Structures are given as C-alpha cells and as structure tokens.
From TrEMBL:
Alphabetically ordered keywords of this record: Cell membrane, Cobalamin biosynthesis, Magnesium, Membrane, Transferase, Transmembrane, Transmembrane helix
Residues forming coiled coils: none
Phylogenetic classification of the source organism: Bacteria, Bacillati, Actinomycetota, Actinomycetes, Kitasatosporales
Top-rank taxon: Bacteria
Cofactor(s) the protein needs: Mg(2+)
Pathway info: Cofactor biosynthesis; adenosylcobalamin biosynthesis; adenosylcobalamin from cob(II)yrinate a,c-diamide: step 7/7
Bias kind Basic and acidic residues: ranges: 1-25, 33-44, 61-86
Keyword Amino-acid biosynthesis attributed: no
Subcellular location as annotated: Cell membrane
Catalytic activities: alpha-ribazole 5'-phosphate + adenosylcob(III)inamide-GDP = adenosylcob(III)alamin 5'-phosphate + GMP + H(+); alpha-ribazole + adenosylcob(III)inamide-GDP = adenosylcob(III)alamin + GMP + H(+)
InterPro entries, sorted: CobS (IPR003805)
Region (Disordered): 1-49, 61-163
Low complexity bias locations: 87-98
Protein name listed in UniProt: Adenosylcobinamide-GDP ribazoletransferase
C-alpha cells in the first residue's frame, strides 16, 4: 500500500507544467485499492488509526468523535499512544488548543447543592457591579472591624433581663408563687444579681412574724424561734439541706469525686447533723438576745441576716468560680455574675445595712455595715475551701454559703 501511495504522489508531481496548462482532478486511487482500504478499516475498527486516503474525512473531526465515544480503557490508551506518535511524525495534524478564559479569583465561596448534592462543589458568588475592587495594599492597618448587625436574638440577650432575673431569683430561692420564664445563663446572671432582693423579702416576712409574736405576748426566745423558722419555710429548707450535705461531703475526708457522691445522697450523716444543730442554735440564740434588747433590734437583725445570706450567693456566683458538676443549680449559676456587678451589689447591701442600723445612732450604722462585711468574709472563706476541696461549687455549696453568712451576721449584730 505504501508503494501505491508513492506512485500516486509521483504521478501528481511528475509534470507540473502540464498540470498548470491542463488542470485535472486530484488523483484518485483505483477501485481495487479503495476496496482494500475499506477492508483494512474494518479490521482496525478498534484502533484509533485513521487512513486519510481511504476515509476521505477530516482527521480532526474523526479524532474528536472517537475521543467522546465510550470504549475499553486498554483500547483508549493504545489509541492515545498511536495518535501521539503520528502527531510527532507529522502524519496527523495537531489540534488547535482551545483558548481558556482566565479565571478570576473570588474569595467568597458558597456551596452549590444543584451541581453535586453529595460533594457540594464550591462555586464563586458573583459580586455586585458597583462594589469596588479589594486592594490589600491601600487597606489601612488599624481599620476597626465592622460591628455585627443587631438581630432580635442579640437585642434580647445584650442587656440584663431584670424582670426575668427577679422571677429567677424568687422562683428558685423562695416558695413565692413566681413562674420562672427563662432558664439560661443571662437569666441566671440577672437572678443572682437580684438575689438580695429575694432575701430582703424573706427577711421582712421573718421580722414581721417575730414582731407579731412579741405583740401577742410571746417572749424573746419564742419570737426568735419563729423568726428563724420563717426563712426555712420560705426556702423549703433548701439552704439548710445544702449546709448539711456540704458538711457531710467535706467532713468525709474523701477525694472530690467521692465527696460529691456523698453530697448527692438523700440521707444526712453525722457531720450534717452537727452542722445543722450548731447553726440553728446560734441563730436562735442571737435573735433571742436581739429581741431581748428591743423589738426593733430583733427585726433589724432578721432583715439584715436574710439579705446578706442571699448576697453571699451573688458573690459566690461571680466569674472564675467553676462548677463542680455539669448539672444542677450550681452549674446553672456558677460564673455568671461579673465581678464589677457583684461588688456593686455588695456595696448596695452594705449601705442598706448601715441605713437600717441608723435607728440606734452611729453605733447601729457601724454595726450594720460591719455585720455585712464580716458575713461576706466568712462566706468567702467557705467558698474558697469548697472550690479547693471539691473542684467547684454546687447547689449544696450555695446553701451552705447562705446559712454561714446569715449566722455570722446575727452573731456580729449581737456582740458588743
């Protein structure tokens, strides 16, 4: 076949003068040669070799059509190899590279589920036409970050929800029929800041009860017992129970995990009984002495002790105070109160104590302020011991803080 092709080419270029004088049609191989070429194409149907002279078709179109046809991987590989060799020898024309437009980089990407629901291929998002181009060289170094737009959720939680905080304080610390509408960290923070308000309400109820007993002719001791019983009733004995559980856990001398397990048990151990006994005896004795001096002194002591007891909860829930367990009231309120807010509430309660003590002159003012400060100091010592011993605070620890602060305040008020 190669000889036939050379013969055709020789005949086509043998007499160039005659060709210019008498133009003739392009030399076509005889019919016998065309039949042989057709047989060769049928034998090589699986290959990608294209006979230009026999096919009479455009080589580029045949190559593109064959590239799009599905076939065996081995045959496709052989066809690619042979096409590459023919292109190197110059027998087949090279395909012109299709110009690819430059891809502009756009840093803003988003998933396009319409393209591929499995891999969710990323595609660039078109920018608005009027948006200026980003120039990193001319960008100021100290440009402030844009402020996030305020949404209804951020607007709701950005400020302190004082109504929700009051409901949280009264709903969790007292038996007053108040429904807690929110149980999140923001409401817990506001509730702990409002805890002294709930203590003031409990103290007023206790003072009124003690004064009523005195008015009915009861002695100071009975009035003191009634006054001490009112806070226990209005809190469902929650703080006293926490005091007993904390005493059992700390008194066991076991590791933190075992001490916390002991604190969750429903029964009361010997350390809890001893702690309850001495605390209640100290409260009743101090109130009895205060009522014995004057009815105003007893009522003043009842109000200050109940208020400073809830102030200890506010100070105990300040930031950087960890929770010993991931659940419970302690985990809900631990670390929610900012230090500045806790100190501000402490200053307000101290001022109220001094103001209420003005009934007894300057001595009463100093006594009221001193009772608040010493009670907070005693609660702080217990708080640090519990954090060091248990690894954090729990609801029982908060109850122990409240009872410790109340008892200390009563003792300070009757001394001197």
């Amino acid at each position: 076949m190669q000889d036939q092709r050379e013969l055709v080419e020789h005949q086509a270029h043998a007499h160039p003068e005659e060709d210019r004088a008498h133009p003739r049609a392009e030399a076509i191989p005889p019919a016998r040669h065309r039949a042989e070429a057709a047989d060769d194409r049928q034998d090589d149907a699986g290959d990608d070799v294209v006979d230009v002279y026999a096919a009479g078709l455009d080589v580029a179109e045949r190559a593109l059509a064959r590239a799009d046809e599905p076939g065996d991987d081995a045959r496709d590989h052989e066809g690619e190899h042979e096409r590459g060799e023919r292109q190197q020898q110059g027998q087949l024309p090279r395909l012109v590279d299709v110009p690819v437009p430059p891809v502009t980089h756009d840093p803003i990407l988003r998933p396009d589920p319409a393209r591929c629901p499995l891999c969710r291929t990323l595609r660039p998002v078109s920018k608005p036409e009027n948006e200026p181009a980003y120039d990193s060289e001319n960008e100021p170094e100290n440009q402030p970050a844009p402020e996030p737009s305020e949404t209804p959720e951020t607007a709701q939680t950005s400020g302190t929800p004082w109504p929700d905080g009051l409901r949280f304080a009264f709903g969790t610390l007292t038996v007053f029929p108040v429904a807690v509408s929110r149980w999140d960290r923001e409401a817990a923070r506001a509730g702990m800041l409002c805890a002294p308000v709930a203590g003031l309400a409990v103290g007023l109820c206790a003072a009124v009860t003690g004064g009523l007993f005195l008015l009915l002719g009861a002695g100071p001791l009975l009035a003191a017992v009634a006054t001490a019983a009112v806070p226990a009733v209005l809190t469902r004995g929650l703080h006293l129970d926490g005091l007993a559980d904390t005493a059992d856990g700390l008194g066991s001398g076991k590791p933190a995990a075992d001490a916390l397990r002991i604190m969750t048990q429903s029964d009361i151990g010997p350390f809890g009984v001893i702690a309850l006994l001495f605390v209640l005896l100290a409260q009743v004795a101090a109130l009895s002495q205060a009522y014995g001096a004057s009815w105003t002194g007893g009522m003043f002591a009842a109000v200050v002790s109940a208020t400073v007891a809830r102030l200890a909860l506010t100070l105990g829930a300040r930031v950087a105070t960890p929770a010993a367990r991931p659940e419970g009231l302690g985990a809900a309120v631990a670390g929610t109160v900012p230090l500045r807010g806790a100190l501000l509430v402490g200053a307000v309660v101290t001022a109220i104590g001094a103001l209420l003590g003005a009934y007894d002159g300057m001595y009463g003012v100093v006594r009221g302020a001193l009772a608040v400060l010493v009670a907070c100091a005693a609660a702080e010592l217990l708080l640090r011991h519990c954090v060091r011993r248990l690894g954090g605070v729990t609801g029982d620890v908060f109850g122990a803080l409240a009872e410790t602060a109340a008892t200390t305040a009563l003792v300070v008020l009757v001394l001197g």
